[in-house]
Records
---
Amino acid sequence: MMTKEQLKAQVIANIDANKDKIIAIGEQIFANPELGFKEFKTSQLVRETLDELKIPHEDNLAITGVKGNLKGRKSDVRVMVMGELDAVVCPLHPQADMTTGAAHSCGHNSQIATMLGAAFGLAPVADQLDGDVAFVAVPAEEYVELEYRQRLKDDGKIFFFGGKQEFIRLGVLDDIDMGMMIHSHANQTDRKFLIGCDSSGFIGKLIRFTGKEAHAGARPFDGINALNAAALSLLAVNSQRETFREKDRIRIHPIITKGGDLVNIVPADVRMETYVRGTNLEGILDASDKVNRSLKGCAYAIGAEVEVDELPGYLPLIQDPSISKLFADNGIELLGEDTNIYGEEVMGSTDAGDISSVMPFVHMSTGGYTGDAHSKDFFITDKEMAYVMPAKAMAMTVIDLLWNDAEEAKRIKETTTPKMTKESYMDFWNRFCEGNVDKGEF
């Protein structure tokens, strides 16, 4: 029987012995970026690696997801290590897919590598763990290709546009007690971990302005210009910004995805997409109402019609303080006293927020990257920091949670009341889709 310190040292040695393989996995995924719900090559790589480690797994979860199940010597508690399969659309990135524009300019390739890296460390010592470990590869974190995902929804293949949300809905996480994952920290080249960062929630909107076609040169007065209604709505939304409370940190950033059909025809079919982001649901729903008023008012002013499809977005992130502390302590053990950065504001959004609403969860970030996220300049500068060190830190944290009859994991489970149950989570989003959510309830 090892001590906890000896077990951690063995797991670190296991990861070091497979360091080149872990980095190669990350680099292979980087060279083959795939968009959400289409990550077939990456999913196959995860399955092959779990097979190599003799970890039983389920696949085809929410189309491409994979869940490996490592059995410990006891099974009272199950801890999850998660990674994201998908890339983002960034066609100008040098490693972008020429056909789809997909590129790993957000670091999800390192997430899968570190998740599997933790598996390389823990699989040989499963008989020393007082609980089970799930290694979960989840699709479609990036909220892109909305019309494609709407078609998947219409065909009954998904309900949510985010993979983690689908995992909650499908019951993939019903046997999970708590979880963790790592994310890239853009423009952080140093060996640092970001602990306890926040992340905004959002709702999405698909918007369609409908006018009336007419010859733009000969008889524009016979038409109704849907593009004018859309352009006017951008000004109206901007005019709402002074009404947003600073504490809600609202962000609204619409784009026009279709401006018309031909230059000599008055635009009659104009499409827009937008997010409404914020740090809390009350603020998000209040801002959403104001956006909708702007859209409808501007359509009326021009004489056009507008349809707004409300899309379930992601919930704000809730970081579990106990798991965060364990991870931070392991970061210090690996890299020294100055390795952790605490509480930095991050206004991006992730469906990890949805998981954190139904279980204790942490979403740490790691250095080793240069360039802005989702940009053509985003690259890994320190492969050991991006791929290997987070694997070690997460594996060590799993040991802390599952040591001594999983005492710490059980304490966290018993003393933490998640914001939502699975049932109340599904009820919220179902009522949202039906237009029956009142911002006052939050």
---
Amino acid sequence: MAELIDGVDFALAAYREEGVWQVQELAHDVLGDIETLAHALRRFPGDGGAVGLVAMDEDFFILIRVAGPTTRVLLSDITAADEWELARSAVAFLGLPMPEDEDDQVPAGDLDLLGDLGMHAMDMGVLLDDYDLYPDEMLSDIARRAGFGEAFDDAVGLTSA
């Protein structure tokens, strides 16, 4: 039986089908680790793979992109690995050591994960340096730049009525 994952703000898959972005909610039982999440994302029929966007406890987010056998990961705050299994799994997947200093809130992974969609590494770095933003706000900005902002905002309830 799949373990219930607490603290998930939202978990979405975004993919392009025939040039049109689709955003779909992911079942929380696929959020145990990066491998399981990547496997779940591979089921989507996207042109060029799928992007997973997971926000946890208004604390951090994980972006994961799968295309064929390739999995790319970005963890917004490496110190989240001290508390969260999914973040630990991301750090392990990236082959990085566990963080030793809790004050060292830095991203880990592939900052250019969405570079081909218009969210380049430098822009991603600037966004991740803005400690005043919550993960959903950062992911909304990322989704907008990548071309699926409206579908993302609708899915997480950020759209004003």
